[in-house]
From TrEMBL:
PROSITE patterns: AAA
Protein name: AAA family ATPase
Family: Belongs to the AAA ATPase family.
Molecular function GO terms recorded: ATP binding; ATP hydrolysis activity
Positions of the UniProt region annotated as Disordered: 75-97
Alphabetical keyword list: ATP-binding, Coiled coil, Nucleotide-binding
Biased composition (Polar residues): 75-95
The keyword Coiled coil is annotated on this UniProt entry: yes
Domain AAA+ ATPase, first and last residues per copy: 146-282
UniProt key word Hydrolase: no
Organism: Methanolobus vulcani
Amino acid sequence: MNSAITLAAQARGYAKAARELEDRKESERARELYLKAAKLYNDASMLSKDDMDKNTQRDLAEHLFARAQALKGSNAVSSGGTLEGNRSSGNNDESSITKDDVFLKEIPDIGFPDIGGLEDVKEEIRKAIIYPFTHKELYQMYGQKAGEGILLYGPPGCGKTMMAKAAAKECGAEFISVKTSTIVSKWVGASEKNIKQIFDIARQGKRSIIFFDEIDSIATRRSESEDYAKRVVNELLAQMDGVDTASDDLLVLAATNEPWAIDPALRRPGRFSKLVFVPEPDLEARKAILHIHLKKRPIDDDLDISYLSEITDSYSGADLAAICKEAADIPLGEALRGGNPRKIKMQDFETVLQKRKPSIVSWYIEAKTAVQKTGEEEVFSELVQK
Ligand SMILES: Nc1ncnc2c1ncn2[C@@H]1O[C@H](COP(=O)(O)OP(=O)(O)OP(=O)(O)O)[C@@H](O)[C@H]1O
Ligand SMILES: [Mg+2]
């Protein structure tokens, strides 16, 4: 019986052949091979044990299927799926893309005070993002090049996305958050064009930060990726090289918890040349995070937040937020069942902690192996020390 790996390898072969046929304008034959490749990826995704492989294979199947549809010369919007492509309301047409599918433009409501701890990271962000925007002339006067791209990386749930939003808020920039997962699964054919369009839109704004969250889903090492994924990375590189930090009020930020999986070319000068590690919260940070998440909840005098911070070593910010919510659910549930409303007690936290274990330990184990495999221990030294 075929394994997921074999099927995926066959799919890759068909996809490559289809692409070559398409380039030679042999559309009908290309379409057949795209469909074969899509089916093989789909079959592979059903057999894959690894969630990430599964998702990638499913996305690739979707992509290749849409590619075949586009070649059919039908009315499918897929091949022209530009940002302006319209989706009629209520229509579940997977192949059309709207602006909202791809990115969100907002002024975030999260600021530095909402982020517990991580003082060093905040200071790095101030120097790398906020001061270059707010003290542009000073930077120019001293010949300091500001505004290189920044890649935030670290364990899941430790505040990378929050930090990016807060950075935009702190410097009053428009925050253009690009939904990278949508790019992978739906952005058909027009992906390069649309990346360019995002940068063009950002340049029109007053002061903008483009944020590629979970960038690993679109910027994998080109040696290991499909042709269409390579084109996305190439366009991203070209756009980043084209950002003129002197005249563009534009910064590019990205976040990932798999920095080792990203194409190293993206880390060259002028691109994401600054890497900022966002670690799990230390004792003080855990205390601050617990305070933030308990601020608006009724807590009993017996609740010792310092002690709680001590016993939650290795828990992420997201774990701590969840613990606070789950502890509050206990007296809430009792009150809903007719009991007298009471404050949240230490005992509630102890009950919750028995069930919820720290989520980042396994991430460090995986990170260490992955970084050692790529031989980039010096670049990601924080990940191999543990
Ligand atoms: N330092 C922090 N202070 C306050 N809350 C935090 C902090 N870190 C994480 N949280 C809580 O955890 C949630 C998840 O944080 P966030 O989305 O920023 O993590 P992330 O590092 O981007 O994770 P992922 O890698 O999974 O995308 C936040 O919405 C918040 O409730
Ligand atoms: Mg995130």
